[in-house]
Amino acid sequence: MSKLKVILNWAASCGGCDVSLLDVGRPILDLPEKIEILYWPVALDFKRPDLAALPDGSVDVGIINGAIRTAEQEEEAKIFRAKCRTIVAYGSCACFGGIPGLGNQFTAEELLKRAYIEAPSNANEEGVLPQPVSERGNFALTLPAFSPAIRSLDQVIPVDYYVPGCPPSTSTIVSFLGALGAVAGKEREERYFAADKALCYDCPRAQAKEAKKVARLYRPHQQVADPERCLLEQGIFCMGIATRSGCGARCVRANMPCRGCYGPLPGADDPGAGALSALAGLAGEGEDYLPPPKVLDVLEAVKDAVGTFYTFTLPVATLNKKRG
């Protein structure tokens, strides 16, 4: 049996997804018998010419983690699409834009200005900003162009499968690695390595739910949560009501609310709108109907609405970026 030919790359991400592949324990030891890695620059000594030398359509599976922020990342994603018969978006950043996608609240110019001029630690009196081309004597120094907005992988190239998570849980990774053959042959019907139901269905606190409304909301650091009770019913906002299950409820089991890294539920028109609606429905202890002004009073505890409801999904939301 011939080995599967696999290539991997990262774009705008923290590197945690690459590390997660190595953190699964023993299953990683079985991979050399099944796959041949032809390109993985973050882990092995590969360079762009190694990727370019691969014949188009010759690779079984291409795995990309990270959102698309620069012209170089977009170019490499398109090269991957040409080389690979199957493309996998790995991790929340590739699937939905991820935490880097929160940068879409600002223009590219505003982000560069903040990073290189306004940040307190800078010493940049001339106000110099990175440029795609800079002339230095007889040399032209080049940098990848900064795109106007951050995009998910499937906003740049067609994607065949999605492995969500920040990073994906060990059980998700093991399931994905075990299905590589089916993925390579596109024999797997489900495109997501996650469940189609909300995380609440898998939450160990589900049996303790009493469907109570809350008089106010708390941020996680403002009170010690009862580990047996639903976090929402304690006034601690949890995205599990609007997030795919499949992670094993690992944050909730650690007494922390879900932040939504496995992405929106199937059919959700907007990733954060459902969560916001559900949260508003919980507001108002002892009242069947709460007028909008009182709902807003309860929601006042949400200090960063975009960062709360779209932590990982802003680039795929209905309103997904600031217009310059």
Structure description:
The protein has helices at residues 16-22, 48-52, 71-83, 92-96, 108-118, 170-178, 180-184, 250-253, 273-282, 292-299, 305-309, and strands at 4-10, 35-39, 59-65, 68-70, 84-90, 133-136, 139-142, 146-151, 161-163. The protein folds into three domains: 4-99 and 148-184, Rossmann fold; 112-146, no CATH class; 199-316, no CATH class. It contains eleven helices and nine strands. It is of the alpha/beta class and 324 residues long. It is 25% helix and 14% strand. Strand 1 (4-10), helix 1 (16-22) and strand 2 (35-39) form a beta-alpha-beta unit. The model has no long low-confidence stretch (mean pLDDT 89). The longest helix is centred in the first third of the chain and has 13 residues, at 71-83.
What is the C-level CATH assignment of the largest domain?
A: Alpha Beta
Number of strands: 9
Count of discrete alpha- or pi-helical segments spanning 4 or more residues: 11
Reported CATH architecture of the largest domain: 3-Layer(aba) Sandwich
The low-confidence runs, each spanning 5 or more residues with pLDDT under 50, are: none
Q: Which strands sit side by side, in order, in the main sheet?
A: 2-1-3-5-9
Amount of helix: 25-40%
InterPro entries: Hydrogenase_assoc-protein, NADH_UbQ_OxRdtase-like_20kDa, NiFe_Hase_small_N_sf
Protein name: F420-non-reducing hydrogenase subunit G
Pfam families: Oxidored_q6 (PF01058)
GO molecular function: iron-sulfur cluster binding; oxidoreductase activity
